[in-house]
Design brief:
The protein is an alpha+beta fold and 489 residues long. The chain has helices at residues 6-17, 21-41, 47-58, 63-71, 79-83, 105-114, 129-142, 159-173, 192-200, 269-285, 325-336, 352-363, 379-386, 389-395, 428-433, 444-459, 472-484; strands spanning 119-121, 123-128, 147-152, 177-183, 204-208, 230-233, 237-241, 261-266, 310-317, 340-344, 367-373, 398-402, 411-414, 418-422, 436-441, 462-463. Helix 2 runs antiparallel to helix 3 (47-58), helix 3 (47-58) runs antiparallel to helix 4 (63-71) and helix 7 packs parallel to helix 8 (159-173).
C-alpha cells in the first residue's frame, strides 16, 4: 500500500530513521490533548460546546492550542465597576425592586441578572431603517448642550459615518463633551485621519478591546466585542437598537441596504443607559469615575420613574456575567406567553433551552412565528439556521424568510404587552461572547406599534413550507455540517 503513496512512505521511513521520534511525537500529542481537554473543560460551558471544541481541535495538533488561545471563550472580570456604582451617583440602582414598581417575574429576573432596576420612559419612538435613524440622531445631536456619548460596533468612514462625525465635530467646537467608544474589530476601517477633526475639536475617542496579538502573555480579545449601539445625549435622550453607522444600512445610499430597527427613548430609563455607557467607557479607558464628571451625566431635572407611563428595563449581557441575561429573559418570556411569540432575528442559532421553549409554545397552540433573512451575510450561519427548521415546522412554528434585502432586525414580542428589541441576535455569539444591549418594554401601546411594523415584515416575506424540496448535497449535508459547528459560532 505504501508503494501507492511514495511521499507517505518516504515520510514514514524518515520517522523510523530517527530513534524514538515516533513515540516522542505520540507522547507529545497525548500531552497536548490532555492539556487542551483540561483547559476547555475548566471553562464549564455547555457539554455540547465543550465536546465540539475538543473534537475540532484534537484534529489539529498544536495548531489547535493556538486557535483556542485566540478564539476560545474567555472571562472578563469587571465586577469592580458595578460595585463602584455608589461612587458614580447611581446608588439607587440596588438589587432590591423599588416599592413603587410592579415587579413581575420577568422584571425580577432582569434586575437580578443585570443589576439594573426597572425603569420607565416618557416616550419611545420606533425608527425603521437607517435613513430615518440617522436623520433623527443627527437632529438630536444638534440640540446637545452638555455631552454626547456614543458606543458602536460598526462605525464606517463612509457617507453615514462622515455625516455623523461632522455633527459631532460641530458640537465639540461649541463646548459639548463628545465621547466616542468604538469596537476595535467592527470599526477597524476607521483611520486616524478620519477621527482627526473630532479630536482636534476636543472630542474623545476610545477603542473597545483593541487587538493585542503581539503582546506577550496577553490573550487577544478577537471574539469578545461590544456589539452595542448606544447614544446618550445630555442624559435626557437615548438611541439604541440594531442599526450601526454605515451606508450598508442607509437605503438612500444603497438600494440593497439592510432592513433594520432602532428606537429613540426619553425619560428615567436614560439614566440606566447612561450607566451602561459609563461602565463601558471606564472599562475601555481605565478612567476613574471622577474623570467622567459624574454630576453632569445624570441631570436632576430628568423625569423620575413615576413620571413615565411606559415600563422599561435595560438588559445587558456579555462575558463579564455568567447569567446570559438577554437569553434568559427571552426564554422566560416564551414560557410565560399565553397567546403568541414573534421572533425576528438575522442570525438564528438557538441553544437547547431556547429551541425547547419555542417548540413547546407552538405545540401548546400559541401563535409562534420566526422571521429570518432568506440569505444572511453569512452563508454558514444561514445553513445552521435552516438546520433547525424541520423540528420547528413539525412543532407548528410558522417560519418566514425575508428578502431580497438583508434583514438585520432583532425583535421579540410575547403576547400583547412584552417586547425585547436591541442589538442581540438569537445565537450563541450574542448570548455568550458579545457585549449586548437590549430593551425590554412592557407596555401594550408600544408593543402594538411594534406589532404593526413586524406584521408588515411577515406579510412581505415568504413562508417556509414543511414539505419543501431539498437536495442531499446542496441543502441537507451543508445544513448538518453547519449545525454540528453551531456551538462554536
Amino acid at each position: 500500500m505504501l508503494a501507492t503513496y511514495p511521499a507517505l512512505a518516504d515520510w514514514l521511513h524518515w520517522l523510523d530513521a530517527i530513534p524514538h521520534l515516533r513515540p516522542m511525537m505520540i507522547a507529545a500529542y497525548v500531552v497536548y490533548l490532555l492539556w487542551l481537554i483540561g483547559w476547555i473543560m475548566l471553562q464549564k460551558r455547555e457539554p455540547v460546546a465543550t465536546l465540539s471544541w475538543i473534537l475540532s481541535l484534537a484534529a489539529l495538533p498544536y495548531i489547535g492550542l493556538l486557535i483556542y488561545y485566540v478564539l476560545g471563550p474567555q472571562k472578563v472580570k469587571r465586577q469592580r465597576l458595578r460595585r463602584g456604582r455608589a461612587r458614580s451617583g447611581m446608588e439607587h440602582y440596588s438589587s432590591v425592586c423599588p416599592p413603587d414598581a410592579d415587579c413581575t417575574e420577568l422584571v425580577k429576573i432582569a434586575q437580578s441578572t443585570t443589576g439594573l432596576a426597572p425603569s420607565s420612559a416618557t416616550e419611545v419612538e420606533w425608527l425603521v431603517d437607517g435613513a430615518a435613524t440617522y436623520a433623527a440622531l443627527i437632529a438630536a445631536i444638534g440640540q446637545a448642550r452638555d455631552h454626547v456619548h456614543l458606543e458602536y460596533y460598526i462605525f464606517n468612514p463612509d457617507h453615514a459615518g462622515s455625516s455623523l462625525r461632522d455633527a459631532l465635530v460641530e458640537r465639540a467646537r461649541n463646548g459639548v463633551r463628545v465621547r466616542l467608544l468604538l469596537d476595535a474589530v467592527g470599526s477597524s476601517t476607521i483611520r486616524k485621519s478620519f477621527l482627526a477633526p473630532l479630536l482636534d475639536a476636543g472630542g474623545e475617542v476610545a477603542w473597545f478591546h483593541p487587538r493585542q496579538l503581539l503582546k506577550p502573555f496577553k490573550r487577544p480579545w478577537l471574539n469578545m466585542r461590544t456589539h452595542r449601539k448606544l447614544v446618550v445625549i445630555d442624559g435626557r435622550t437615548a438611541f439604541t437598537g440594531g442599526i450601526n453607522i454605515t451606508d450598508e444600512e442607509d437605503e438612500t445610499q444603497r438600494p440593497d441596504a439592510y432592513r433594520d430597527l432602532h428606537m429613540r427613548l426619553e425619560g428615567h430609563v436614560v439614566r440606566s443607559l447612561q450607566l451602561v455607557f459609563a461602565e463601558d467607557w471606564m472599562y475601555a479607558t481605565g478612567q476613574p469615575p471622577q474623570q467622567l464628571e459624574m454630576a453632569h451625566l445624570w441631570p436632576n431635572d430628568v423625569p423620575q420613574r413615576k413620571d413615565g407611563s411606559i415600563d422599561t428595563q435595560v438588559l445587558v449581557s456579555g462575558p463579564d456575567s455568567a447569567w446570559e441575561a438577554i437569553h434568559r429573559l427571552q426564554v422566560a418570556a416564551i414560557h410565560e406567553a399565553k397567546e403568541r411569540v414573534w421572533l425576528v432575528t438575522p442570525y438564528f442559532v438557538p441553544g437547547e433551552a431556547a429551541r425547547m421553549a419555542l417548540t413547546s409554545a407552538a405545540l401548546g397552540g400559541l401563535d409562534v412565528r420566526l422571521l429570518v433573512p432568506k440569505m444572511s451575510d453569512s452563508w454558514f450561519v444561514t445553513q445552521a439556521a435552516r438546520s433547525y427548521f424541520d423540528e420547528l415546522l413539525q412543532a407548528g412554528v410558522k417560519i418566514y424568510e425575508y428578502g431580497p434585502r438583508m434583514l438585520h432586525t432583532k425583535a421579540f414580542i410575547a403576547d400583547d404587552d412584552v417586547c425585547i428589541v436591541g442589538s442581540a441576535n438569537f445565537d450563541h455569539r450574542s448570548f455568550r461572547l458579545n457585549f449586548e444591549l437590549s430593551m425590554m418594554i412592557t407596555d401594550a401601546g408600544t408593543v402594538a406599534k411594534l406589532e404593526a411594523i413586524l406584521a408588515a415584515e411577515f406579510a412581505a416575506a415568504a413562508q417556509v413550507q414543511n414539505e419543501r424540496k431539498r437536495s442531499l448535497w446542496l441543502h441537507r449535508v451543508p445544513e448538518a455540517f453547519a449545525r454540528l459547528a453551531s456551538p462554536l459560532l
